[in-house]
Hints:
Blueprint: E1 7-10, E2 14-17, H1 38-54, E3 59-60, E4 77-84, E5 87-88, H2 93-107, H3 112-116, E6 123-131, E7 134-141
Parallel strand pairs: 3-4, 4-7
Antiparallel strand pairs: 1-2, 4-5, 6-7
Amino acid sequence: MTQLKYFVTYTFNLLLYIVDKIPYYRFKQGSTIEEFKPEKFYKENFTDTLDNFINDDLVIDLRAGFYEKFYTLTCKHITMKFIKNGKVVSHWAKAYRGIVLKELAKRQPNNIEEFEMINFDALHVKEIIDKKLKREYVFEIE
């Protein structure tokens, strides 16, 4: 049976478990340090570790699009898009991902069927798009 594993990536794409404390730092999204490019570093140095950690488990990917270049998922995964008044929400998407994460923490689904049983406050599924290993839920914001 596929089991969900919970871990979080944070702004500088720090890999954290749910119980880890987030260290203080100041580093803007997209920044580099001289020739050091974080997205390249993480992709080259953490891909194998993440692949082994995830194995064949289902991933609910709540990353902002910017962070997709840090790691490419090679397993079944769920992504989400939020639509309001016919337009994709970008600036407030973090708040809606938080609504989803709150319910995931409460319900702790073990598979996609349990995930699909969750009702998220102020969100309803408008469309589900399947592409290879990715299932994207398009949520309409009420």
